[in-house]
Design goal:
By secondary structure, this protein is an alpha/beta fold. The chain contains nine helices and nine strands. The strands form two sheets. A seven-stranded mixed beta sheet has the order 3-2-1-6-7-9-8, with helices on both faces. Strands 4-5 form a two-stranded antiparallel ribbon. Helix 8 links the parallel strand 6 and strand 7.
Length: about 240
């Protein structure tokens, strides 16, 4: 009887392991991590449920390299900031990179992971959340007066929207203002990436942007989508 129970338990474990191995999400992220590992920080950096998925990160990086993006802005700093600034420094790429976040403390944490050379490859902008004319349902967004002054006349061809926080129902549309703010700050051809598109808020934002700006969002994985103004080289892994 004991032997039978052990065999049943072993078979159950084998089934679970097989399901994990065959999971597209696990496989995608594992390969992406291996591919990008040389550009991760030398000291331990915690990846959490709030972090950009490795597969999403890799596709964002792929587009920047393959389609030769020259000016990149991200809303919401994190592992993406560290990887791209490291890549720019390592490959000596001519890319203007701006990273925006509402937390001065978080920016300091990220900055501590960067070498002197890497620090020169990214411009951090600290912009606290405040009332915004572009907001929907009175959600707060980055202080646009600070952004306007810090960004100046820069025009971007790659945008990553992964902030501010939008996990609660009352703030689920808090990332929409980025689309409005960027309309006069794009180059002629550009691409926009939106993270957490598995959530109701981001799904609603994509519908609004399709109606308002004519964007057609395409899916990369279950939580990452993009819209672009022209056909470029395929970058999707």
């Amino acid at each position: 009887m004991l032997q039978l129970k052990k065999e049943k338990m072993l078979n159950k474990i084998k089934t679970i392991v097989k399901e994990i191995i065959q999971s597209p999400k696990i496989s995608q992220d594992s390969i992406a991590l291996m591919w990008l590992k040389d550009f991760f920080p030398e000291k331990y950096f915690a990846l959490t449920s709030s972090s950009l998925r490795p597969h999403s990160l890799m596709n964002w990086i792929n587009d920047i390299i393959i389609n030769k993006r020259t000016s990149v802005v991200e809303f919401g700093s994190g592992i993406s900031t560290l990887v791209l600034s490291n890549l720019i420094a390592h490959e000596n790429l001519d890319i203007n990179f701006v990273s925006i976040d509402e937390s001065r403390e978080w920016i300091k944490v990220l900055d501590s992971y960067l070498s002197i050379e890497q620090k020169s490859k990214v411009k951090f902008i600290h912009a606290p959340l405040t009332e915004c004319n572009f907001s929907l349902k009175n959600s707060k967004w980055y202080d646009s007066s600070i952004l306007e002054k810090a960004i100046g006349h820069i025009r971007f061809d790659s945008v990553l929207i992964d902030g501010p926080i939008a996990f609660r129902k009352d703030i689920m549309l808090s990332r929409y203002p980025a689309f409005e703010f960027m309309q006069k700050r794009f180059q002629k051809e550009y691409i926009i990436f939106l993270d957490d598109t598995n959530r109701d808020g981001e799904k609603e934002i994509m519908k609004i942007c399709q109606r308002r700006f004519g964007y057609k969002f395409l899916t990369i994985n279950d939580s990452f989508c993009y819209a672009q103004t022209s056909n470029n080289y395929n970058f999707i892994f």
